[in-house]
Records
---
Amino acid sequence: MNILGTRIDNVGLDDCLIFIFEALAKGHEIRIVTANPELIYRAQKDNELLEILDSADMVLPDGIGVVWAARQLGGVLKERVTGIDLTYEILKEGDRCRWRIFMLGAKPGIAEKAAIEQSQKYPGIIFDSHHGYFTQEEEPFVLEKIRRFNPDILLTGLGAPRQEVWNYRNKGIAKVRIGVGGTIDVLSGQVRRAPRFFQENNLEWFYRLLKEPSRISRQSILPLYVLKVLQTKYFN
Ligand code: UDP
């Protein structure tokens, strides 16, 4: 499905897990992007970002805004697949299959805490982590740490689009690289995920806005995104 120039794959959570399993079994290296409306909107005006999305092995519809746009543009997307839902499934499978998972991102101390918390719940997984506020000078050290750990899965939570750029530029450090946004904060227990009501009514974005009103400047892109989708629907 093409949404404002970005390719979105019509896949659900299960398809994505199968894709990951296959890649690990066959020894293929893959990069997965969770594309939300903000990223799709930005990609229209940013050729590097568009190339990053286009060249990803899988682009997931992250959020109801993407599923809605698909419907407006005459297509259907199976379901929304968020970074956090995908991560929870990866943790369950990782526990069973003894995967090595590296968490990169969030403020200092948070990724370490997430690794400790999650290794209690999923003792089969081997975790390592690093925070996401490293400088350019520190980057080679971070890359070396990841390389030495040799992860099956690298969960990159540096915020969009930095995490997408980072995963795109750093090939060869993990078998599967996925941008997961604020997931590491939730895994650490420091930040609570939106209550079920908000999740079930597609209002997770609104809950995050209530908790962090400063997100309003980023979310102000959303009305522009809606207008652009409707413009494409009626005038293109
Ligand atoms: N983050 C980071 N390094 C940065 C900027 C952000 O590690 O330079 C982390 C931030 O602490 C948070 C995560 O990226 O854990 C996601 O941030 P945000 O909520 O802005 O992203 P979203 O989930 O909306 O993509």
---
Amino acid sequence: MEQNTSSQKDTAPSLTGRAVGEFSLIDGKATAATIKAEIKQEVENIVAAGGKRPHLAAILVGHDGGSETYVNNKVRACEECGFRSTLLRFEDDLSEADLLAEVARLNADADIDGFIVQLPLPRHIDEQKVIEAIDYRKDVDGFHPINVGRMAIGLPAFVSATPKGILELLRRYGVATSGKKCVILGRSNIVGKPLSQLMMQKGVDATVTVCHSRSTTLKEECRAADIIIAAIGQPAFVTADMVKPGAVIIDVGTTRVKDASRARGWRLQGDVDFQAVAPIASQITPVPGGVGPMTICMLMQNTLAAARHEYYN
Ligand code: GUN
């Protein structure tokens, strides 16, 4: 499908057979819209056959601006996919015990197919304890250790939405991964670690290197990479000198940086210096409009899978 047509051309030839400066955008926004339409169609088929609309619940504690935006986007995506959604909001003085009671209530509610607890949580609440309290069969974020472990050994499981979205982009854009050298920057539980497992699994078959803040050969690893996936949360960290001509670049970063030229005073900056790197890359995701929209879309896919009991009874 969406092989992107927005390539930028220059006339100078290069050793890779592409013109220098010619690259294709990997358009996450358009891909996510296509997938959401596919999901909506499936939901309408289920409902027409007498089945139940998938129902996602989200718990949001406090008033973190970024979290509020994410959760609102998730609720909107539910509407776009024909799902029901329930947003449960609490003040940031909610006790850990009360949050755990809320999780237990959602675990037991047969009408809720899947739910998420938006992170980060206030500091007085133990995030890991909350994640482990979620019934793994409703853990559409894929954060529960049972889902993480099952994914790692290739069993059916809910997979964390950002890594899942990246794989879907690579697949839909026909990016060759078998035997390719993939360098992942970042080792978070939500992105870097699960992505490293997924990129090396059978059928994807990349040779994976994970670099992080203590890596001493990060630049050299990047320069040798066919695919770089940047998920370190450092604005414009990946520069042109770190990229091999023709590499595929996936940018997970979304840092708000000051920008006086914007009415709101900030813009989203990825982990990649897009202007400098794009002309060297063969394919690249923009920020915004790359990985971000895919993340929410994969949460919708996981919710549909939960409603259908695809992974668990
Ligand atoms: N905070 C940032 N990303 C996520 C996510 O994917 N899920 C949840 N629950 N919280 C987040």
---
Amino acid sequence: MRHITIIVPCYNEAEVLPRFYGEVRAAVEKIEGCAFSFLFIDDGSRDETLDVIRTLAQSDATVRYISFTRNFGKEAAMMAGLDYAEGDAVILMDADLQHPPALIPEMVAHWRAGFDDVCAKRIDRNDEPLLKRTMARLFYRSMRAVSRFGLQRDVGDFRLLDRRCVSALRLLRENQRFTKGLFTWVGFKKKELPFEVRPRAAGHTTWSYLSLLSLAVEGITSFTTAPLRLTTVLGLLVSALALGYMVIVLADALVYGDPVAGYPTLMTVLLFLGGVQLLSLGIIGEYLGRVFTESKRRPCYLIDERDGEKFDYAPRRREAE
Ligand code: UDP
Ligand code: MG
């Protein structure tokens, strides 16, 4: 009998959780030779999510949970899930039923066939607005262009990971997590399964355009230093152009004289150089900020409660005291 843990990050999902649990339970019941358990991560929800999870845990002994002290974000929630999951494999899944439970049997079959990382690849983004789709495409393309490994396209967090992948991922303790990149980074034998994203069953998405943009910046700056190199190249290019232009201006002044001081050219060059310098400073600042945050070595999440017990980070006092 092999054991698989289903990790579910939840943020304000009270409305959909009972349905999610019911559908997934029904889907995995039919899989033979595998025992499934649930690990819910309550990411500081402000609704009744935690109560719903507690109720589920009371009726099903295979349901375990962790609740955070506040909202730490999905990346942190997934990391906690990977840290505390037991068994031979884990499945990462969203709580909103956008990830079809019907795909699980197929994932398990591929895992049994020897794949370590079976990930679901969305084949359409039709229900999403055009702007979001275009932004996603642009992001994947630039990421592929600048980083050394190709980021898997349209592959989300819905995946089955062998225990070996999980142990490898546990080694990566960075604070600013770009999980999608980390999955690629650890390697292992991967298999992509196509699936159609369903609309959210209930509740609201918590991703705004701004947070998606910051995720993209996160992805680029935590996986490649190419932008830094780009500024060097840009600097060299601009210097070369400026040098060439200087020769022309000097020659011009020597041959024809310079009756009016070159106000337009001066302004153009000044503004252009100013822009390039600010951009470069900004990019350097982005990386510096990353070093700053990472150097504090804070934990990625703090646990408030685990399976009904209040979590305490202080070392246990000895009984004798
Ligand atoms: N989520 C989380 N913490 C957050 C935001 C989201 O744990 O701060 C969970 C959420 O409950 C859901 C999953 O991450 O299970 C995906 O979130 P959502 O559906 O909002 O994102 P989308 O599907 O739009 O990418
Ligand atoms: Mg969703």
